[in-house]
Backbone:
């Protein structure tokens, strides 16, 4: 193989690698844009929730941050029977029937799932039973 042929082959591989990288980045942007996000902050033994209207059947991520100095739990029946993924401290746990997650002080987690059931979904801290909050998901027919 001549030097010119080597250069041509390297250019081809460079083009293929660039195209693959751009396709991966484009896919990541599409995924990030299509997720509905609910932000939950735990502070002063209360759940503070920030969310936009949630749509049925769309990928959803609940980002939970514990700003308290004590350990808390974030659990809900909304995850029962549906595929759920929890990302915490670099570890990803997934499955059906994931009930929730314990959060040490100053830690955070992301819980990913598809919203499949309309209604009022309560979440709570099993360690501190007076702590609770809710997500409200209305079907398109109810709006």
Residues:
């Amino acid at each position: 193989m001549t030097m010119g042929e080597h250069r041509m082959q390297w250019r081809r591989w460079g083009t293929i690698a660039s195209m693959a990288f751009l396709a991966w980045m484009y896919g990541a942007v599409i995924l990030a844009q299509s997720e509905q996000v609910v932000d939950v902050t735990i502070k002063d033994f209360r759940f503070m929730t920030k969310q936009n209207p949630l749509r049925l059947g769309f990928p959803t991520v609940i980002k939970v941050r514990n700003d308290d100095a004590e350990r808390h739990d974030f659990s809900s029946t909304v995850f029962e029977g549906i595929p759920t993924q929890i990302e915490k401290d670099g570890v990803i746990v997934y499955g059906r029937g994931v009930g929730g997650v314990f959060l040490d002080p100053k830690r955070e987690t992301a819980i990913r799932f598809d919203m499949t059931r309309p209604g009022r979904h309560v979440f709570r801290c099993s360690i501190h039973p007076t702590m609770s909050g809710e997500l409200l998901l209305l079907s398109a027919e109810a709006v």
